[in-house]
Structure formats: structure tokens, C-alpha cells
Specification:
homodimer; alpha/beta; Helicase, Ruva Protein, domain 3; Dna Topoisomerase Vi A Subunit, Chain: A, domain 2; 4-stranded parallel beta sheet; two-stranded antiparallel sheet; 43% helix; zinc ion binding (chains A, B)
Chain lengths: 197, 197
């Protein structure tokens, strides 16, 4: 490719998820040919965010403050704690539900092969919160993958030691889905988990 | 959304082509959670490129130097000039063909409704080059859209005034394509443009 700065920019764009060589080239040309101002704005927003955003001291989600908005909101129900894997799960739950409790963001899931153990997920921090006795219900909202289930199981046992009841979000046929398009694992889960009509 | 810096970053990502709200969020979280270093590298590569990359004084393509690599390469055939709409077309032609002449990059196409006339495409610059008498063949490789055809036609007439012969790249059925999947415009073009076997 012609220009080495252009080349570097295209290469750098490939770090984004779902961006390959062609998309990286398209993005670079778009910014250079059509919207340099937006490109500079994006670059500075990225630098600012990466420099200043750290983790909430209470729930570990991403925030530029010591405590995130949800943790520092005294109007929320502090007896409920919802365990999720990532900050985007918090956003998804906040948008979809009327849950008004608190969250704890693992920033990952138990995965010993990748070197992710209880410490990496901040479970010591979580246990400290269990010890305060404030939490009455724990909602396990990790993903329904093998690692997610193992993580939920581990935290459930941890909560058991402190006599905290834990619930798991329901798995089953998605709303609007059709039975014959749903995979057999989900279907058997939905069947086993049937409830009184 | 929780953090305002995060919010700004997500908003800024939407300036990229093909990136909507969800992808912007995914990209932001990916950089913040998994690869902050690559994010900083991308931000600085963008700033560098946007700051320093301008246009080649001869062919108008993107370059951080006064003349681009192709224009300053004395080994290339300066009697041939290929007209394309954008720098990515140059890359595509360089990769696909063994063309060793020069390029002229319009950085757009004639589109009076959007205020793009001959001046915006640097056609005065092109005419200066015609006047030197160095160019013997003009290859019109604008896109086969209405604007691209109009642009090619306009430049063809311009070249005619200087007795320069112009050719147009062939349009027809793409290699590997199947006749019944090709649109009727392309097919009629391919039929009209048939050549001795």
C-alpha cells in the first residue's frame, strides 16, 4: 500500500472485533476522504476513555469514577445483587427489566485453562459483600455456557456458606421463537423448567 | 449508559461506515475490557494519519508526501494514465493487474446536485497534464454507475480536445459468475460488448 501512515492506520483498525483487512481499509478511507473531523473526535474519545475509565470499587463495572452510577445510587434496593459477566450485560438488563437492585460484574467467567480463577473475577470482593449481611437475594445471570454455568455454581456455593439464597435466570425458548428452530439443549431445558399455567 | 466517557466513545464509533449502536458498543467494550493498548495504538495511528496525510500534487491520491509512490516512481510508463474515482480503486487495480502506467484519482465523481463539478474533481489539474503531450492513452476506470459513466464521458471529451485516445474498462459478466444471477443491465452490456473468440 502507498502511504505508510495509511498502512499503520489500516493495520490498527484490525484490532476491532469483526474488522478484517477490507473493512479496516474501508474505514480508513472513509475517515480520510469524507470525515476527518469525526475521525479526530473518535481518536480523542478513545484516548480519553482508555486513559480515564477504570473499575467501580464495589461492583467492578467500567466507570471513570470510584463508584459507578448504580452503586452510588442510594435509591436502589441493596438487598438484591445480580451477578453478570460483563458491563454490557448490565446495560442489557437495565434496558430490558425493571430490576432496581445492585450488580456485581465478574469481568469474565471461571476458566482455569485460561488462568481465570476466583481471584481474577474479584470473588474475594464479592465475599466481603456477603459478609456484611446486607444481601438477601443473589441473582445469577451469567451466560448459559459451560463456563457461565460453572461460575454460577461456584458463586451459588459461596453464597450458601453465608446463608444467602441464590436464583438463576430462566433458560428456555426465546419469546417470538419457534419450537422447531430452537436447539435441543434449550428445548430440554425449557421442558424441564415448565411452570404451572 | 453508565459512564459519560464510555458514552462518548460509543457515539464516536458510529461515525465509521457500517457501525451502528450495537457494534459501536461492542467495539468500545472490547477495547476497554480486553485490549486497551491496541486502542491507544489505533487512536494515535488515526490522529497521525488524519494530521499528516494530504493529497498527491500530481494524481490527487492520499499520501503524506508531496508526490505519491506511484507518481514519483520513474520506472513507470508515463504515457498511460488511468482515471479512477478513489484511492481504494488504485489499490484494487495495482493488486489485480500488471498495469505499470500512472493514475489520476478524482476523489469523487461528477454530481452537480451535490455540488461536485469539474473543479472539485481536479479536472483543471488533469487538463494541465493533457497539455504536456506526454499522455498517449487514457484508461477510464470510473465505476459503472450513472455518475461514473457521466464522469468518464466528460473526461473522454476533454481528452478528445487534446487528441488523446481514451479506453473504457470492460463491463460484463464477472468471472466465476453465473448468467442467470447477473442483472439484465450487465448482461445486455456483456452481450453488446461481445468479442471474437
Amino acid at each position: 500500500m502507498e502511504s505508510s501512515l495509511l498502512n499503520e492506520m489500516v493495520e490498527a483498525f484490525k484490532c476491532l472485533p469483526g474488522v478484517g483487512a477490507r473493512t479496516a481499509q474501508r474505514m480508513s478511507f472513509h475517515l480520510l476522504e469524507r470525515d476527518r473531523e469525526a475521525g479526530l473526535r473518535l481518536a480523542s474519545a478513545m484516548q480519553q476513555a482508555i486513559d480515564k475509565i477504570g473499575h467501580c470499587q464495589l461492583c467492578r463495572t467500567l466507570t471513570e469514577h470510584e463508584f459507578c452510577k448504580i452503586c452510588s445510587n442510594t435509591g436502589r434496593d441493596s438487598s438484591k445483587l445480580c451477578i453478570v459477566e460483563s458491563p454490557s450485560d448490565v446495560i442489557a438488563l437495565e434496558q430490558a427489566t425493571d430490576y432496581r437492585g445492585h450488580y456485581f460484574v465478574l469481568m469474565g467467567k471461571l476458566s482455569p485453562l485460561d488462568g481465570v480463577g476466583p481471584e481474577q473475577l474479584g470473588l474475594d470482593l464479592l465475599e466481603n459483600r456477603f459478609e456484611t449481611g446486607e444481601i438477601k437475594e443473589l441473582i445469577l445471570a451469567t451466560n448459559p455456557t459451560i463456563e457461565g454455568e460453572v461460575t454460577a455454581h461456584y458463586i451459588h456455593q459461596l453464597a450458601g456458606k453465608h446463608d444467602i439464597s441464590a436464583t438463576r435466570i430462566a433458560h428456555g425458548v426465546p419469546i417470538g421463537g419457534e419450537l422447531d428452530y430452537v436447539d435441543s439443549g434449550t428445548l430440554s431445558h425449557a421442558f424441564d423448567g415448565r411452570r404451572a399455567y
